[in-house]
């Protein structure tokens, strides 16, 4: 049994399969775990909810990206005081297909924190070795000078003028970025190394198989042992349910369906753990637009090319550039009618730079009474909101230092634009999250790892406490925030867990 | 006796979806006021808006479409709050409707702001994809999204 099986309608026979390992989800964690097991000689079946889209299938518009690539059109929002979007992908390759491929090593203090607060040691050496492999195999490179684009260059200029620490052009899993600014729709130029282009085809080449359009309903147990998964195919366009599938796992099931879907899947599978769905964390982020006299054309150049990690510990922020397509600016800029169109007419002259808060606030993931979607309860506490606001001030200052004549803060109740002398307005901005437009794209927790089965869901090898043959290998096991972009950490963790499994 | 069609159809999710074409009109008329032609820039109602709204309705999950319809209802039913005229937005003069559009989008009430934000989302996508708009920003016209995937 190898190759690829896509959607099967209700009129077709149920699909039954068997493999040594069944991996649920094909994103950062799932693909890294699958290829590691396949390289160890195992037969691996990857079961992925989304469709398999090759670069020729990738959408061009933001509309197409939401329809074809995002989980539920990107319409998941937090439940709390403010409704902030929780953005993830649903496609073969997971969120690596629509992300910016920024690659940052797991900081040392994170390993220390995991050991001190969660009793999870022994991972550092293995994970750093895995990160060496990942960087080599996924061609990690600094955004090349010819594809930096004006927005990234200006961000560097502003940061240097202000002496912002650890200001740098990003390192990304990209081989020769052509600067098309299309990372969030999938890289049609085949430069970005999303997992659908490498680890997933390699898993098939090593005798594995991929089921796409195949959302897993639940993990099947015999006693406490996980022995497979079951679900029903789902059509990628109509969302109609197809025939049933079931894949038996001879050795283990690896769940890597993301920080929101993995806890949900384990709940649906009947697992009861006090910590399941708890300790959900994120790096909520927002962008400020600088208005410049000369055109910036932020959609030319690497989608994200500049960052500063120098504020990671104090106050707990990451700063970075991000280009936003014209189609999404229409809802992002304030107002309506002729005033909105006048504001939009400035599009060529604006650059968006962002902050992501290393938030300490915790939320939860639970089952909805009305649908099979996760409910994400989450809001920032006062300390995190203060950090959020500090980040906005840092970005505004950076824009002015780079030559912006005004900044659009995007805070309800504040002036639409502020000048260099109005920074006080931002410094004193209200801390009510409902005033801000933010998104959550770096997610953690829900199946956190730890030694203590009362406060965690998996152990330091990703094994679900109280079960055998069941491992979680994605963002959901991370018990802390990171303060840096998470893909590198998630992939290294998944590889480490998979190596451990294969060696047993 | 001829059977009367049900007022709703089941979507692929098995969820009732209102079939009423007035919903499309409600959304498209709100979007046309929110994104009007201004200066050299065309507005969102530049030829393909009806087709866009119909497609958006067909392709989005029902909950998102419901959010957009709610946004359009809020938009049309609130001129009393913004321009102090007890008429729906679609009956206002163009100048008053324009004033209403700007004021309601910046409402002090979060739920109203969110409702208009959800409504602006498809509006911005339709407007920003229009080749005539893109030309003004030196952006190439967008090819059609393939909407394809591996089937074997
Ligand atoms: C817009 C955006 C930009 C980002 N940019 C960066 C960046 O530049 N660098 C970085 O480090 N991080 C970035 N991130 C974050 C990073 O991409 C994610 O943290 C990472 O991909 C998460 O890995 P994962 O394996 O946990 O989940 P995912 O990569 O999301 O994969 C989960 C997969 O599981 C599938 N799935 C879910 N439920 C089921 C089910 N029931 N059955 C079968 N399959 C299922 C999903 O369809 C999905 O394909 C970004 C995120 C976003 C949204
Ligand atoms: S900027 Fe363009 S070429 Fe570079 S990685 Fe992103 S999509 Fe690919």
Description of the molecule:
Chain A has 504 residues and is α/β, with parallel strands linked by helices. In chain A, 25% of the residues lie in helices and 22% in strands. Chain A has 12 helices and 20 strands. In chain A, strands 1, 2, 3, 8, 9, 10, 11 and 20 form an 8-stranded mixed beta sheet that branches. In chain A, strands 6, 12, 13, 14, 15, 18 and 19 form a 7-stranded antiparallel beta sheet that branches. In chain A, strands 4-17-16 form a 3-stranded mixed beta sheet, covered by helices on one side. In chain A, α1 (28-39) packs parallel to α6 and α1 (28-39) runs parallel beside α12. Chain A is globular, with a radius of gyration of 22 Å. The two termini of chain A are 23 Å apart. The mean pLDDT of chain A is 97. Chain B has 152 residues and is mostly helical. Mean pLDDT of chain B is 89; it is low at 1-18. The relative contact order of chain B is 0.14. Chain B has one domain (21-36, 45-136). Chain B has a two-stranded antiparallel sheet. The radius of gyration of chain B is 17 Å and the shape is globular. Helix content of chain B is 55%, strand content 4%. In chain B, α1 packs across α3. Chain B has helices at 21-34, 49-59, 62-77, 79-82, 94-105, 110-129, 131-136, and strands spanning 8-10, 16-18. Chains A and B meet through α2, α8 and α9 of A and α3, α5, α6 and α7 of B. The structure holds flavin-adenine dinucleotide (FAD) and iron/sulfur cluster (SF4). Residues 24-30, 47-50, 87-91, 94-96, 98-102, 184, 215-216, 256-259, 261, 265, 441-442, 474-475, 485-488, 490 of chain A line the site of flavin-adenine dinucleotide.
Strands of chain B, total number:
2
Q: Please tell me what the overall shape of chain B is.
A: globular
Q: What kind of oligomer do you see?
A: heterodimer
Helix/strand/pairing class of chain B, anyone?
mainly alpha
Which ranges of chain B are low-confidence, i.e. pLDDT below 50, for 5 or more consecutive residues? 1-18
Q: Which percent range fits the helix content of chain B? A: 40-55%
Provide mean pLDDT of chain A, rounded. Answer: 97
């Amino acid at each position: 049994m190898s190759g690829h099986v896509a959607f099967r309608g209700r009129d077709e026979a149920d699909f039954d399969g068997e493999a040594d390992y069944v991996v649920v989800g094909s994103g950062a964690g799932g693909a890294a775990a699958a290829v590691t097991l396949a390289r160890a000689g195992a037969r691996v079946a990857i079961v992925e909810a989304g469709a398999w889209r090759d670069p020729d299938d990738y959408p061009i518009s933001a509309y197409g990206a939401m329809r074809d690539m995002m989980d539920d059109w990107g319409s998941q929002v937090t439940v709390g005081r403010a409704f902030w979007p929780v953005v993830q992908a649903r496609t073969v390759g997971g969120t690596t297909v629509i992300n910016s491929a920024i690659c940052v090593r797991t900081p040392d203090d994170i390993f220390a924190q995991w050991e001190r607060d969660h009793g999870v040691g022994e991972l550092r050496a293995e994970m750093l070795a895995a990160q060496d492999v990942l960087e080599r195999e996924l061609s990690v490179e600094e955004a090349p000078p010819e594809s930096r684009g004006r927005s990234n260059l200006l961000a560097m200029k502003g940061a240097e003028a202000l002496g912002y620490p650890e200001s740098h052009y990003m390192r990304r899993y990209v081989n020769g970025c052509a600067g098309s600014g299309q990372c969030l729709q999938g890289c049609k130029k085949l430069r970005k190394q999303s997992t659908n282009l490498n680890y997933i085809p390699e898993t098939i080449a090593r005798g594995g198989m991929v089921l796409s359009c195949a959302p897993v309903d639940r993990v099947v147990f015999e006693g406490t042992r996980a022995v497979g998964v079951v679900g029903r195919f789902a059509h990628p366009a109509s969302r109609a349910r197809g025939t049933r599938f079931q894949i038996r796992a001879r050795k283990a099931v690896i769940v890597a369906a993301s920080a929101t879907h993995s806890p949900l899947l384990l709940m649906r599978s009947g697992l009861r753990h006090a910590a399941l769905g708890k300790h959900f964390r994120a790096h909520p982020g927002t962008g400020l637009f600088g208005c410049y006299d000369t055109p910036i054309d932020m959609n030319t150049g690497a989608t994200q090319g500049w960052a500063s990690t120098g504020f990671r510990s104090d106050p707990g922020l990451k700063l970075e550039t991000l280009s936003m397509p014209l189609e999404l600016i229409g809802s992002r800029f304030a107002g309506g009618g002729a005033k909105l169109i006048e504001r939009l007419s400035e599009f060529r002259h604006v650059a968006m730079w962002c902050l992501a808060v290393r938030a300490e606030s915790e939320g939860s993931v639970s089952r909805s009474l009305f649908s099979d979607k996760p409910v994400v309860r989450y809001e920032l506490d006062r300390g995190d909101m203060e950090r959020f606001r500090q980040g906005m001030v840092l970005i505004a200052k950076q824009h002015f230092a780079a030559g912006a004549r005004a900044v659009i803060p995007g805070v309800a109740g504040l002036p639409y634009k502020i000048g260099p002398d109005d920074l006080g307005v931002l410094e004193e901005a209200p801390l009510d999250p409902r005033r801000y437009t933010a998104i959550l794209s770096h997610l953690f927790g829900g199946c956190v790892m730890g030694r203590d089965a009362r406060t965690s869901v998996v152990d330091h090898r990703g094994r679900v406490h109280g079960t055998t043959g069941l491992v979680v290998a994605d963002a959901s096991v991370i018990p802390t925030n990171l303060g840096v972009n998470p893909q590198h950490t998630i992939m290294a963790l998944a590889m480490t867990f998979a190596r451990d499994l294969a060696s047993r | 006796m001829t059977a009367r069609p049900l007022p709703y159809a089941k979507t692929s999710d098995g969820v009732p979806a209102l079939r009423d074409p007035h919903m499309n009109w409600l959304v498209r008329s709100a979007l046309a006021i929110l994104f009007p032609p201004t200066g050299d820039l065309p507005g969102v109602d530049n030829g393909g808006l009806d087709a866009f709204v119909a497609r958006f309705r067909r392709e989005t999950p029902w909950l998102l479409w419901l959010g957009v319809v709610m946004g359009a209802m809020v938009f049309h039913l609130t001129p009393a709050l913004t321009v102090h005229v007890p008429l729906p937005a679609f009956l206002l003069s163009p100048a008053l409707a324009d004033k209403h559009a700007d004021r309601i989008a910046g409402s002090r009430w979060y739920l109203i702001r969110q409702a208009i934000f959800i409504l602006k989302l498809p509006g911005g996508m339709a407007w920003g994809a229009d080749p005539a708009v893109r030309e003004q920003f030196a952006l190439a016209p967008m090819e059609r999204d393939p909407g394809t995937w591996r089937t074997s």
